[in-house]
Write the structure tokens for this entry.
Amino acid sequence: MPRFFLDITMSLDGFVAGPNRTLEQPLGENGERLHDWVLRLASWREMHGLEGGETGPDDELARKTWARVGAGIMGRRMFSGGEGPWDADPNADAWWGDNPPFHVPVFVLTHHEREPVVKEGGTTFHFVTDGIESALEQARAAAGDKDVALGGGASVVQQYLRAGLLDELHIHVAPLLLGGGVSLFGELGTDAPSLKLTRVVESPLVTHLSYDVAR
Amino acid sequence: MPRFFLDITMSLDGFVAGPNRTLEQPLGENGERLHDWVLRLASWREMHGLEGGETGPDDELARKTWARVGAGIMGRRMFSGGEGPWDADPNADAWWGDNPPFHVPVFVLTHHEREPVVKEGGTTFHFVTDGIESALEQARAAAGDKDVALGGGASVVQQYLRAGLLDELHIHVAPLLLGGGVSLFGELGTDAPSLKLTRVVESPLVTHLSYDVAR
């Protein structure tokens, strides 16, 4: 049975973006530092059509994760940083140019309808306006035998956690305090699902914590 | 040079106590689950005058940590759960009975003066009303060649972090989502100190993350 998992980097103080996000600084103040660990990896560079990069435990883990993914889900804010109607969104074409690093169908949760956008390299963005369950159903259909990855942002993560739809959490804890910004888990309430720690992988730059979510 | 370190357990969503704290339930809803990992340890039981308990990586780590400690610091809320004048605090004698598990001098930050309370087993509670720097200075003097441990709560931790006075953070991440309550780091602001990951110890029940704080 294919799995639905979250894969995201947070600071030790629980933020997935720093304070004061702008179009120029979509991850807020110091937020880019969250991803210091991933940008140097050989597997990340490969997905972006680049050569070189580091191998080692972080790279092996990232490579294994990405190999599982048959489709992705993300929120509108992660896609473009914007909100509201698409024709008023200055970043409606998103952050990733003509050849995004996903190379699979990606389902974007939004309140505003839009035709699919076909990019190079296998990434097609589909826009889903009828809720998180529909997005998951469509992503599962697109992924076939492979898994579905949820990338963020925090609001979508919290919605899927509250709905009990996630199978696994893979949290990369970056060794920094962002001091504010977008809280990954927020305040889920006391009916938040139970977790079981399944794997810890460490490196000097990040700690990878994996959990199964009790259904 | 002796060190000043934080040692505390938080949930994956960053809380050190759950929602709705009361005198009967000082760690809030589900908050007791934070400490599932520690209550079973041989070293914890020994500190509480009990026999038996589990050995293994968690126990070794806890034993090494407690052996470093020459004095402790904690906040008033952690001490009694109360606030305001001592004669109106129904838990003014704290949670730990006649023989608290600390076995060293403990400096309690409070706005209300009080004579020291001498307990059995080496624990004396000293009440400090002139601020976090004074408490640290007094604790260092009491600790001699040993280190000073900060136990919480969150408000005191945030004050010491903002003041740049902590040398190390030892965060035990419990595999659960409390869904609300007392956030360990809160929103420290963008001048929060930098961290360097120094150690990861894992077990099925908890992940121990250690960081040096850049001064």
Q: What stands out?
A: Chain B has a mean pLDDT of 96. Helices of chain B lie at 36-39, 42-47, 57-68, 76-80, 132-143, 154-162. The first strand of chain B starts at residue 4 and ends at 11. The first helix of chain B runs from residue 36 to 39.
